[in-house]
Amino acid sequence: MEAFLVGGAVRDTLLGEPVKERDWLVVGTSTEELIRQGFQRVGQHFPVFLHPQTHEEYALPRKARDGASEAPVTVEDDLRRRDLTINAMAQDQHGHLIDPLNGLRDLKQKILRHTPAFRDDPIRVLRLARFAARYHRQGFRIAPETRKLVRKMSRAGDLSNLVGERVFAEIAKGMSESSPVVFIQTLQDLGALREIIPEVDCLFGIPQPARFHPEIDTGLHTLMVLEQACLLSPLPEVRFAALVHDVGKGTTPREDWPRHIGHESRGVPLIRLLAARLCLPNAWRDLAIAVSRYHLNCHRALELRATTLLKTLSGLDAFRNPERFEQFLIVCEADMRGREGFEEQPYPQRMFWLGAFQAAQQIDTRQLGMEGASGEKIREKIARARTKSIESFKNSWLSSPNENQSDNA
Asked: How far apart are CA 321 and CA 243, in angstroms?
């Protein structure tokens, strides 16, 4: 058995970047032999095994898509069946580079180029966008012929039957890259976003009132919000919620443009369908729904009555899930700043909501429950007490607006 270091480990070494994980390609062996040696099989789409000591991944060479040939598969054959040329390099045990598709040349020239087998697995379109996002700041660009191929794949419907779990896995990684905006821009530019997340793709070209949105275009605003969310949080679920916060605007009748009355509630069922299609984790889905439904309430916090503030906190499930509530506030701040000329503006609403939440939490619900009332009566009593506490906090806040503004800034 002979093992070759492959893929990202080789690419990152050549780029002078830290190697996060090492994957190996093995030839001269079989599935049965690897299992006999204690390797654990984990691959679903092609044979991948975990080393019994290092737990690094070892894979047998990928066979041709048709699987017709009985000839032994070589290292070069496997590399030609990968996604991009910069990922189609290997090193033998002596450190010699095996590079059948000139990946080193493309790495030096900072080009993302497809392999001959790129179209065999359309999920590679999302991987291409991920690498565009990862290496954007280093000056990498997508080869013109690769752009042409992906647009052809998008028009042909190659992306329409991708498995939701695989799509989500790539989106989660894309939202975790250094430039998630580039990830979405790349998919949109190549015609793939309308197949992957049509709810977001359709926002480009839809106008908004210039009074509130100097950037006008809803799609551009969405990217600006995503950019701000990336500055405020590294969490992919927060960034994704920013991406889909305005999808309800995609259903506004054209005759109502540029206004989008009720887009918050209209976005909720769209996000539910999107979550089901992409198999989103519940935490991602619930945060995105919360942002869609309540983001305007968040912006209007200082105008709301104490009863409405409490209803919003309850609707956000803030008392049982304060972590998600804080994530919600981050996305709302990104929404406010994701507008032309508003990028550096303070967002006092965030501190106001945290203060109102803290005021409501100060109520001793256990003590109220011990005062002899039954179920519904107790809930009403708690609500009244929380409302009164929030009202007191709000009055205090409004009595010193300049201090509160400066604290948040």
From this structure: 22
